[in-house]
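Might I ask for a little of your time on a matter of protein folding? Here, with my thanks, is the record as I have it:
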Amino acid sequence: QEQLVESGGGSVQAGGSLRLTCTASGYTYSTVCMGWFRQIPGKQREAVASIDSESNPLYADAVKGRFTISRDNAKNILYLQMDSLKPEDTAIYYCAAGGRECSPSPGDYDYWGQGTQVTVSS
């Protein structure tokens, strides 16, 4: 059974850092794009960063220069290093696995984790 499990969320002050981890199982994730999305209650889920099977990253403009996405295909783990966090980064962060090409559209991803809360206080 395909499963994605996020961890590493929490509460930090503005300017702080967090590292999210997504552990995948039940599927060969090394050949597909994986991504991080975030969602604030009442708003649409938005793309944060994605990384293809060759570890080429894409970032949303809002997080460029502050967040770093990476993956360890041998361990089926996806990471999101978040530095210089801002209050507007507060959201539930979701890990997702999708097709061969990365996309900012949530609909292009087949598997999702349950989400982890990130709260940044000013």
